[in-house]
Here is the input.
Amino acid sequence: MKTDDNILVREYLATVERESTALPPAARQELIADLSEHIEVARAERPGDVRAILHEVGDPRTIAHTALQELGHATAHPVPTPRRRRSPAWLPLLLLVISCVLPYSGDHVLLNWVSVAMKIAAVVMVCRSDHWTTARKWAGLALATLLPITMNVIWYLTVVAPGNDAVVDTWRWPAAFAGLLLTLAGVGWLWRTRVR
Here is the structure.
């Protein structure tokens, strides 16, 4: 067994002991002994997998809190539940719409990069949000981002790259409008299907 693994286990057990100071000394020693035995058995079965084993055993604060509850000391050292701040549903949708319009508001390259950054931020916000189910996220983002991006790539490869300037001048705004319509359709669908 590696010494780094032994250090990890010792630190983990010391943290559990520190978090369970409200337990009577005998109960605390029994808890540490049980955890130590459980960890050693798991290490024997899966050598070299100490981090995963400690992760499976659980958070030291949660273990200490559970032991306190079992002894009837539930009020001592309550474990705070981490809460992720919920962003409003309209924010990523607004970013998607702005990122679609922004590149056409001027001819500066910086606008394109800001637009890409906004689109990535909006996609991440939608993916991490609990306003939609996974299926609704996929459907809405496919309509609001994947289809317009695919359409822009096809437009670039078939019209812009070969240098068809006459076609670019004629169809630039209708193509931009089609991308905007797809984005608005996806944003509208996401807005209608959000969980309130």
